[in-house]
Amino acid sequence: MDTNQYLEMFLEESKEHLQACNEHLLELEKNPEDLAIVNEVFRSAHTLKGMSATMGYEDIADLTHKMENVLDAIRNSKISVSTEILDIVFKAVDDLEEMVMDIEAGGTGKKDVQELVTALNLIETGNSAIITPEMETAASTMAIEPMKQDAPFFHYDDYELTVIGQSKEQGFHAYEISVTLREDCLLKAARVFMVFEILEKSGEIVKTKPSVEHLENEDFDEVFTIVLISNEEASSLEAKVMKVSEVDRVDINHVMGVALPMAQKPAEIEADSMATSAKEPVKETVVPQKGRRATNAHNANKTIRVNIDRLDILMNLFEELVIDRGRLQSIAGELHNPDLNETVERMTRVSGDLQNIILNMRMIPVETVFNRFPKMVRQLARDLDKKINLEIIGAETELDRTVIDEIGDPLVHLIRNALDHGIESPAERLAKGKPEEGTVTLRAYHSGNHVFIELEDDGAGINKDRVLQKALERGVVTEEIAATLTDRQISELVLASGFSTAEKITDVSGRGVGLDVVKSTIESLGGYITIDSKEGQGSLFQVQLPLTLSIISVMLVNLEKDIYAIPLSSIIETAIIQTSDILNAHNQKVIDFRGSIVPLVNLKGIFEMDGAQEKEEYQSVVIVRKGERMAGLVVDSFIGQQEIVLKSLGNYLQSVFAISGATILGNGQVALIVDCNALIK
To answer: Are 454 and 541 in contact (CB under 8 A)?
Structure first.
C-alpha cells in the first residue's frame, strides 16, 4: 500500500496526539490519583501506535507500545504515579516528537531508544528506573570515527581534569572544538552565541579559549575553541556547527591524557530538548480545542485540513485583488460614471467581506504556542530547584499565522528570564513572607487591532539600582542620561544588546542576548514591548502585536512629489499646527501636544530630500507613538486613509533606515511605508 498520500495527515495527527499526551501528563502530575487522565494519555498513545504501524514506522510503534504498557499498569493500579516515572514517560514523548520531526524533515524516523525501552520495562515490572548516562552510553551503537589525537593545547586545572576524567569513565567524550569564522564575518559575537547554543544542547561546555567575556566583546581573531563533554559523535557535532552561517571550518580533536567525566544530568538534557521543541515553528492551520473534540465529536466533519501553502497562495491572489480594487476606485473617481461608481462600491463591499474571511482563515489560536510551555516550565523549575506554577489565560486568542510563527522564540526567552531572574528560591520567598510556590502568568487578549501578550510573575522584580549600575559600566547610557530616566525606562534597559545582570553564565541565562532578541523580533513584527516592575513584588512584560502583517490600514501623506504610508496602528492623531508654536529644546524642535512635550521629526531630512524647507505659516504633523514615547512626523500634506498590501523591499534593501516595506497604490505608484519604531529612540 502506498502510504505517502497519508503522510501529511499522519504528521498533523501525530503532533496533536503527542501534544495531548504532554498536556495530560502535566495534569496527571498534579492529580496522580485521577485515572481518567491516564485513560486519556493511553488513548492518545494507542492511536499513535496504530497510525505508526500502519505507516510502517516501527520504531515509533514499538516505543509507543512500551509506553502504553506502563500506562496500562498505572490505570490497573499495578504501579503508582511518581515524579520519577513521569520523567521517563516525558522522555519517551520527547523522543517520539523527535522521531516525528525527523519524518517531517524527510528522514526515516529511526532513533536508538534502547535505554528508554529498558527503563520502561523496569517500570512495568515494578522496579525503579532512572535514566543514567551509563544507560545512554550503553545504548549508543555508533562509534566515533578515527580522529587526530593531538596533545591538548589547553592548560587544564585540577578541577577541569577531574571533570573530563569522570566524564570519560562514564562513557562520555571530551572534545576540543576549534571553530574558524570567515574573515569577512561582521557579527562575530552573534555567530559565537549560535555555536554555543547548538553545542549546549549536545553536551556540557567546560572551557573556552578565549574566555567568554572576550568572545562576547569580539576580542579575538577568527578562531575560537570550546571544550565540550558530550555523548554525540564528532561528525554529528561538526555537521551541526557547520550549519551556522559564516563558519568557515570546524576542527574536532579528542582531549587526550586524562582519565576521569561529568555525568550530565538527564534533567538538563530534557530541559534543552523542551526548549528546542518550544522554538519549533508552529504550522498547524486547524487546531481543535480539546474540550470541543470530546463533546462535539459529531461535528468533526465540519472541519477540514487545508495545506498552509494553499492559504498563502490564496492570500497572495487576494492581495493582487486589493491592488486592482484601489485602481478601480481611482478610475471611477476620475470618470464620474454613476453605473461604474455603483459597481465599484458593490465590489468594494464584497471584497471587504472576502478580506475578513481570508484573514480569519489565517488566524490561529495562540494556544498552539502556549501549550508548549507548561512542560518546559516544569523541567526548568526542577533544574533551578524552584517551585513554580504557570497560569495560562486567553489561549483561545487568535493571531495571524505569520505572527504566530515568529512569536514562539521571544516568549521562550521571556519565560526563561522570569524563571531564572524573576522567581526566587523557595527559601528566599518564605523569608520575604511570600508563598513557597511562585506564580508566572501568561496572558493574551485582543484590544482594537492589536493582540497583547503579557508575562507576569510575583518574583523579585527588577533591581533598578543594579540595572543602572550595569548600564553605566557597559556604556549603554551616560551618567547625564541616567539622571533623567524614569523607573520604567530604567527597567527597559534590560532589553539592550549584550545586557545581563546575571552573576554567572548558565545554560538558562547570563549571556545578555535573550531579551535583546525578544525586542528586535517583536519590533520586526511591527509591535513593541514594555516592562513594568516593582522591586520585591514582581514584573510585567507586555508585548503588543498587530493582528495581521499582510493587509494593513495606513495614512497616506505627501513629501514633495512622493507618497509615503504611515501605519494607523502607530498614529495617535493628525494635526495642523502653527509654525510659531514650534519650540526648541536641547537643539531639538518640539511642540506642546495636550500638555506633553513631543519632539518633531522632519521626514524630508530623514529621507534626505533635496526640496528646500519652505517657511510656511502652518505645518502638517502626524503624532505617532512607540510604547509611551511619542513623536511628531512633519509632512507636506495628508492624502487620506487606505488599506494597502504590505510588500517586502527584498533582500537587497533590507537595511533601509525607517522604511519597513512598500505598497502599490491604485494609480500604479509605489508608496514606501514608514517604520515609526525606528524613528522613536
So the answer is: yes
Which amino acid is located at 613 in the chain? Q
Identify whether the C-beta of residue 52 lies closer than 8 Å to the C-beta of residue 61. Answer: yes
Residues 226 and 275 in one domain: yes
Instruction: Give a yes or no: residue 380 inside a domain.
Output: yes
Q: How far apart are CA 33 and CA 36, in angstroms?
A: 9
**Helix, strand, or coil here: 647?**
strand
Is 144 part of any domain? Answer: no
Alpha-carbon span 249 to 265, nearest angstrom: 31
Looking at 546, 573, 607, the residue that finishes a domain is 546
Residues recorded for the chain: 681
Q: Mean pLDDT of residues grouped by 10 in the chain (681 residues)?
A: 73 88 89 87 88 85 88 85 88 90 86 84 71 41 34 62 78 88 82 87 86 81 88 87 87 68 37 40 39 40 72 84 84 88 90 84 87 88 90 90 85 89 90 92 84 91 86 83 83 77 55 69 83 90 81 88 89 89 86 88 84 72 85 91 80 78 82 85 66
| 152 within a domain of the structure (yes/no) | no
**Cα angle value 531/544/357 (rounded, 5°):** 165
Residue 577 and residue 536 in one domain: no
Relative orientation angle of helices 7-30 and 35-55, to the nearest 10 degrees: 160
| Burial per residue of 90-123, b for 16 or more beta-carbon CB atoms within 10 angstroms, e otherwise | bbbbbbbbbbbbbbbeeeebebebebbbbbbeeb
From 648, 678, 677, select the one nearest 662 (Cα to Cα).
648
The rounded distance, in Å, linking the Cα atoms of 576 and 469 is 43
Question: Torsion over CA of 418, 420, 423 and 424, rounded to 10 degrees?
Answer: -160
Q: Specify whether 427 is located in the same domain as 317.
A: no
Q: Which CATH number characterizes residue 660's domain? A: 2.40.50.180
Cis previous bond, 546, omega within 30: no
Query: How high is the pLDDT of residue 182?
Result: 86
Choose one of 546, 574, 592: the last residue of a domain.
546
Is residue 576 domain-shared with residue 636, that is, in the same domain? yes
Contact 513, 498 (CB under 8 A): yes
Whichever domain contains 242, its CATH number is: 3.30.70.1110
Residue 325: in which H helix or E strand, if any?
A: helix 308-335
Catalytic residue positions?
Answer: 46, 68, 417
CA 507 remoteness from chain centre: 17
With 0.90 as the threshold, say if the pTM is over it: no
Based on the domain organization, do 385 and 248 belong to the same domain?
no
Q: Count Cα neighbours of 524 within 13 Å in the Cβ-side half-sphere.
A: 15
Query: What is the b/e burial string over 558-578, where b = at least 16 CB atoms within 10 angstroms of the residue's CB?
Result: ebeeebbbbbebbbeebeebe
β-bridge partners, 583: 590
Count up the domains in the chain and report the number. Answer: 5
- Residue 148 falls inside a structural domain: no
- Residues 6 or more apart whose Cβ sits within 8 Å of residue 377: 388, 390, 415, 419, 440
Q: Chain-centre distance of CA 35, in angstroms?
A: 35
Cβ 328 vs Cβ 58: under 8 Å: no
Cα within 13 Å of Cα(657), Cβ side: 8
What is the span of the domain harbouring residue 494?
Answer: 367-546
CA-CA-CA-CA torsion sign (438, 445, 523, 517) = positive
- Residue 474 and residue 517 in one domain: yes
389/513 same-domain check: yes
Same-domain check for residues 572 and 667? yes
